Amino acid sequence: MSHLGSHLNLVDSHAHLDASAFDEDRAEVIGRALEAGVGAILTVGTDLESSRTAVALAEAYPSVFAAVGVHPHDASSATEETFVQLRELCHHPKVLAVGEIGLDFYRDLSPRDVQRRVFERQLALAAEVEKPVIIHQRDSLSDVMERLEQWSKEQAVKCDQPLGVLHCFSGDVQAAERAIALGFYISLAGPVTYLNAKRPAAVAQAVPLDRLLLETDCPYLSPHPLRGKRNEPANVRLIAQRIADIKALSPEKVAETTTATAQRLFTELKLGSTTD
Ligand SMILES: [Zn+2]
Ligand SMILES: [Zn+2]
Description:
Distance between the termini: 30 Å
Number of helices: 9
Oligomer: single chain
Shape: globular
Bound molecules: zinc ion
């Protein structure tokens, strides 16, 4: 196993830096990420308020970028005014995506018909403002895929840019390949490091490296061996290391390729360093 140092140039493509878990030491967390080689962090909104906070964090820290959107858990909170405000936020130069959006039939915190309607509105918003989407799916993959299949056909006439990413992907290899064929990337988080989780490891093995993104989804989902602790963007290197092991590649190769992929999807993403 090779040594992991600050020579890796990594991107944490999905973090929740607005979470109250970071209230005591947010600046240190972002600084530690830079020291660990994480040159950019995409902090992702889950409702209008957290989307606004994401944008404020992106304004405050050069290495932080934002995605704005309403999570399926929070779909019930969305009003017409929410979509108006989200559209406004999308014009901010550091807002790189609409997300996280999707369907969550595991926890069903908002009624399913409301989740579908809010997902739909935000797919339309992303198409309108020409931003990629960050998709959340849990126990809803077939519904999500059915909708994305249709959506990708609607988009195809407009551009040949990748359309988005299925974050913290929990489906099987077949579903991953189908998503890639539609123009989506696959993002892997902490579960790929869990030795009892066979499916994300199989996906990491099968999916071409240049279709993969890395993420922490912090403060949740700490990778092995930090499970149960608060997660943070610096830990994305543990995900890179695990994927390197699975694919029998160097961590440097995994970092370089996934970072290039993140920049292909989020075109305005720029990497900072501790020497900036
Ligand atoms: Zn999610
Ligand atoms: Zn998330």
